[in-house]
Design brief:
The chain has one domain: Fumarate reductase/succinate dehydrogenase, transmembrane subunit (3 helical TM bundles of succinate and fumarate reductases), CATH 1.20.1300.10. The chain has 4 helices and no strands. Helix 1 packs antiparallel against helix 2. The longest helix is centred in the first third of the chain and has 32 residues.
Length: about 130
Amino acid sequence: MASRPRPLSPHLQVYRPQLTSVLSISHRITGVGLMVGTLMLTCWLVAAAGGGATYDAIRLFLSSVIGRLLLLGWSFCLFYHLLNGVRHLLWDAGWGFELKEAYATGWAVVVGSGVLTLAAWIAAYAAR
């Protein structure tokens, strides 16, 4: 009796993406984004310690369109990772496992990240 070949494990072609899985993957991606942003911050600090010409080069890059987009992405990653980390802490405390609560907190993380990013950038430009 021959057995049918079956997949060894589920894969992305079998399952439809759900909010919880997308948020989990996004949490990992924003962690990588935070690492890249931290390297950018480190370069800025080293340039500030290095003197005027080095600092001016980094400042010029960070004030360009690409630099501002990187800073915008980094700030979104920061707020997303922060809010999703709080969500995970709530899960560790035993709250929010019901499907309705998981979706509500998931959407709150997404919307909250966007609102906090926008508020931070508005505050930064208002302070100029």
